[in-house]
Amino acid sequence: MAHASSDRPRTLFITGASSGIGAACARLAAGAGTHLLLHYGANRVGVEDVADAARIAGSEVKLIQADLSQPDQIAELGRIAGEESDPARPLYLVNNAGIVDRRASLADLTAERLQRMFAVNVIGAMLVAREAVALMRRRNAGGGIANVSSAAARKGMGGQYVDYAASKAAIDCFTIGLADELAPEGIRVNSVRPGLIETGIHEKGGEPDRLNQIGHTPPLGRPGTAEAILWLLSDKASYTTRSILDVAGGR
């Protein structure tokens, strides 16, 4: 079984890195010895801002565009990631990219909305993981995956975002199964269920002021940050796999 040394430079592959949790992870991880592969969908301006900050901090950065609802583009994403990263470095994936839609009850859900939600949040995430694991295996240096789920997965979000919640519950199940599959190879797989995190996802869901309205409601009385994700991918968490970590301020 291969293990990556904490002293070796690493590649951090982040999907959905143009804003939100993905951008926060890139900014937190940036520094000498970290090569960042930053995926984005449509927000080129946002990801370039993140990349500029990471380069100033000392990271090598490569940007890769792909629509994660399209399997052929995910395969191309994996190919480019392999070409643009040093095969001598262990690879770690922040499997973060996802979408949300406006509040809706079951009666308002359309087949098109559900297909898009699950195409990106579930099928896309699983195919991205497949590409990343192939690269990890080529390196034979272990590696790790942090899937970004949501506290919505255990809340259900009936009458609000039940489709989004269901897609994230699928990610939790995928995390457990993939962790079992990859443990013999020294590749750790965990999931983080964020609650109210300081990102722009609520604006994408049509509620730009949601964090201001309810950010004080968790027992800790504030929204959170993305640092737990990077901890799970660090050697400090080397004995942690198959775990689903709630980062929701006590909710």
Biggest sheet layout: 7 strands, parallel
CATH topology: Rossmann fold
Radius of gyration over all CA atoms, rounded = 17 Å
The tally of domains stands at: 1
User: So, CATH architecture?
Assistant: 3-Layer(aba) Sandwich
* Shape field: globular
- Class computed from helices, strands and strand pairing: alpha/beta
What is the tally of helical segments?
Answer: 9
By oligomeric state, this entry counts as single chain
Strand tally is: 7
**Helix amount, in percent?**
40-55%
CATH superfamily: NAD(P)-binding Rossmann-like Domain
Classified by CATH, the class is Alpha Beta
**Overall pLDDT confidence:** 90
Strand content: 15-25%
> What is the H/E string?
EHEHEHEHEHHEHHHE
User: Strand arrangement, largest sheet?
Assistant: 3-2-1-4-5-6-7
Unreliably modeled segments = 1-7
Termini separation (Å)? 38 Å
Family: Belongs to the short-chain dehydrogenases/reductases (SDR) family.
InterPro entries: KR_dom, NAD(P)-bd_dom_sf, Sc_DH/Rdtase_CS, SDR_fam
Protein name: Oxidoreductase, short chain dehydrogenase/reductase family protein
Domain Ketoreductase: 10-217
